[in-house]
Amino acid sequence: MSSTNRSWHRRLALGAWAFTGLCVLGVLGLVLWSMYELTHPTEEQKNCCWEQNVTPEWMARTMGFQVPETATDRRAGLNSNVQYDVALLTFTVTTAEADRFLKPLQREGTQLVRNTHPKEPGYTRSDGFSHLGLPEPETFVDGMRIGGLCHGDTKTPEGQAVQFCTKIYAHEFQPGTTRIYLWASSDANIDKPPASH
Questions:
Q1: What's phi and psi for 63, nearest 5 deg?
Q2: Which of 42, 82, 104, 136 has the fewest CB atoms lying closer than 10 Å?
Q3: Is there a contact between 67 and 60 (Cβ–Cβ < 8 Å)?
Q4: What secondary structure, in 3-state letters, does the chain show?
Q5: Whole-number Å distance between alpha carbons of 168 and 104
Q6: How far is CA 22 from CA 13, 26, 137, in A?
Q7: Beta carbons within 8 Å of 13's beta carbon, 6+ residues apart
């Protein structure tokens, strides 16, 4: 092979490496930017895409959860964005009532785990509980238990009734009192609540 051909091949190889490197850097930059956008939403993003007329009762039926009758401070939200819909439901009960609510939602032989990788205080997300006026459950460590399930993960009637894959957070924020947070997402559109009259 002539020196001219070797030089041309070397330049071609270097060009291919440079192009590949730029592509990798571009993809990495896009991923980092997306992660930043998710963890540092703008005010416009925080207020975007929230459905009106969402009640805790309607959301409990839609998600497939039977909220204890004794529950207080019930809150709910539905975020419909381009990528997926997010359903939120939260309420406060005694810790004993929380345990009764959670038990049939856990796979046999499993238990909720502690939050070993908390988010920093003040963390928010565009489809999170801050929309409901609450701190995000991922920021809590003390008294926080985390789990989750999808439809059919348990054989119990409660587990069979769950409609979407749901992250479950149980935060005993004071002795004997626990707030339950339920966060579910769906690639398919979640039905919208009826308009108020």
A1: -80, -25
A2: 82
A3: yes
A4: CCHHHHHHHHHHHHHHHHHHHHHHHHHHHHHHHHHHHHHCCCHHHHHCCECCCCCHHHHHHHHCCCCCCCCEEEEEEEEECCCCEEEEEEEEEEHHHHHHHHHHHCCCCCCCEECCCCCCCCCCCCCCHHHHCCCCHHHCCCCEEEEEECCCCCCCHHHHHCCCCEEEEEEEEECCEEEEEEEEEECCCCCCCCCCC
A5: 13
A6: 14, 6, 38
A7: none
Please report, for residues 31, 53, 107, 153, the alpha-carbon distance to residue 159 in angstroms, rounded to integers and kept in the order given.
Answer: 35, 27, 9, 7
Distance of alpha carbon 178 from alpha carbon 165, whole angstroms: 22
Cα 64 from Cα 21, distance rounded (Å): 48
Per-residue pLDDT of the chain (197 residues; tens, 9 = 90+): 566 666 777 777 777 777 777 777 777 766 666 565 555 555 545 557 899 999 999 999 999 999 999 999 999 999 998 789 999 999 999 999 999 999 999 988 888 999 999 999 999 999 999 999 999 999 999 999 999 999 989 999 999 999 999 999 999 999 999 999 999 999 998 988 887 65
pTM assigned to the model: 0.76
Q: How far, in Å, are 12, 51, 148 from residue 184 at the CA level? A: 50, 15, 9
- pLDDT reported for residue 7: 74
